[in-house]
Amino acid sequence: MAEAKSSPASEPTRRDMLFLATGAMGAAGVVALAVPFVRTLAPNAQTIAAGAPIEVDLTPIPEGQGIKLFWRGKLIFVRSRTKAEIEEAQKVNLASLPDPQADSARVKPGKENWLVIYGSCTHLGCIPGGSAAGEVRGDYNGWFCPCHGSHYDTSGRIRKGPAPTNLPVPPYAFLSDTKIRIG
User: Fold this and answer.
1) pLDDT confidence of 138, banded at 50, 70, 90?
2) Residue 156 domain flag
3) DSSP character for 86?
4) Bridge partners of 67?
């Protein structure tokens, strides 16, 4: 009779090697499926950029003109006000305003010629005209919302119409005399 060969317990058998190979392939498959799934949970670059602060160069904006831009999906007006517009905004009797706010509270000290405001009417979110050349500016030389007739002054404050509040001022800071950061 032939004796059966026995292998010591410390030596791996062919079956052990197949179990290891199968386990490694299974783990690799799980990782291959998990990586794309985890990537879909992270915000994409466009989403990250939408909330990031933006820098705006003010040099191309001539006095008395403005630009429109988007930050966090919302319209922003940046206007270079004339001396007459600043004086007009500063001499307004605050008691006559539906939403009293001094012009100095809406601009940065020493930079009164730059007005930065959200560009959506506070009544129903329409876009008031008056930033670009040729747009209707309203009764107070500021912005006019043609949808329901709200009139804003040169400081973006509501003066007439159904809008309940002034055009809001977004968070912004001057990085230099010719550059701001919104956000």
Assistant:
1) confident
2) yes
3) H
4) 78
* Number of domains forming the structure of the chain: 2
Domain that holds residue 27: 15-44
Proportion of the chain above pLDDT 90, given as a percent: 54
Query: Which strand (E) or helix (H) includes residue 16?
Result: helix 14-41
CATH code of the domain covering residue 80: 2.102.10.10
C-alpha distances (whole Å) from 143 to each of 26, 104, 105, 131 are 64, 19, 19, 7
Exactly one of 68, 74, 148, 181 is catalytic; which is it? 148
Q: Tell whether 98 is covered by a domain.
A: yes
Whether 148 sits among the annotated catalytic residues: the reply is yes
% pLDDT > 70, the chain: 87
> Which strand ranges, in their side-by-side order, compose the sheet holding 114-118?
66-71, 74-80, 114-118
pLDDT digits (tens, 9 = 90+) for 40-95: 777 776 766 667 889 999 999 999 999 999 998 899 999 999 999 999 999 999 99
Identify whether residues 116 and 32 lie together within a single domain: no
